């Protein structure tokens, strides 16, 4: 039993070990090019949360990883078979129920560890923060924690790309098809300049942007790259967990 993973912990243990920080990993279930499993974002969320929590636990941080939510916002992929969409309003309802439990039971710090680009919890946390003023609510997307260009030849992809393929080759190579069966992840660009440059936003109609559902060429992916990136991501996130767990909520600013 890993004592910082709720799904493995028992009540005997939970009963005598106070928890400072709950961690809620949140993934998605969606196509990832031809070669990666639908649970790619869930596998990444599970592994990154568990390893980051292990590192934090070893430094004395009282953290607890809740089970990963397996469905995310896939509103741009309505025509991609078995991409399971949760609306943001549904996510907020789930989050609200979880926060209500934590708040009632005196676990006043929560980190949502996001694993999917379509999920966006900031506006929800603004609302829920008003409803639960004792809670300290934070969110972090692990894929934004490091500069990908120092790890990967093609860092510009953002879905089933070299980074995600390398991670899966490290974490679950048994679920990755040979890379010669993967599409090239070629993606069309917006016609509108501001959208192309990223300073205006609109949702992409995924199936019109990419033929294989991937964005970013996965061909240069290796398990070694994935291992190095995984170790550095989890090291960095464990630092956040330690800081959050120790944080005095009456002294947030300096
Ligand atoms: Zn993904």
Overview of the structural elements:
With 254 residues, the chain is an alpha/beta fold. It is built from eight helices and four strands, in the order αβαβαβαβαααα. The protein has helices spanning 11-16, 40-58, 88-104, 122-131, 162-171, 193-197, 206-209, 223-246, and strands at residues 21-26, 63-65, 109-114, 136-141. A four-stranded parallel sheet has the order 2-1-3-4, with helices on both faces. The protein is globular and about 50 Å long. Zinc ion (ZN) binds next to helix 2. InterPro entries: Creatininase-like_sf (IPR024087), Creatininase/forma_Hydrolase (IPR003785). Belongs to the creatininase superfamily. Its cofactor is Zn(2+).
Overall form: globular
Average pLDDT value?
Answer: 97
The tally of helices reads 8
- Please write the string of helix (H) and strand (E) elements: HEHEHEHEHHHH
Main sheet summary: 4 strands, parallel
Please bin the fraction of helical residues.
Answer: 25-40%
Task: Give the strand tally.
Answer: 4
Category by helix and strand content: alpha/beta
Uncertain segments are none
Q: Which percent band covers the strand fraction?
A: 5-15%
Strand order of the largest sheet: 2-1-3-4
What assembly state would you assign to the polypeptide chains in this entry? single chain
Keywords: Hydrolase, Metal-binding, Zinc
Organism: Larkinella bovis
Family: Belongs to the creatininase superfamily.
Protein name: Creatininase family protein
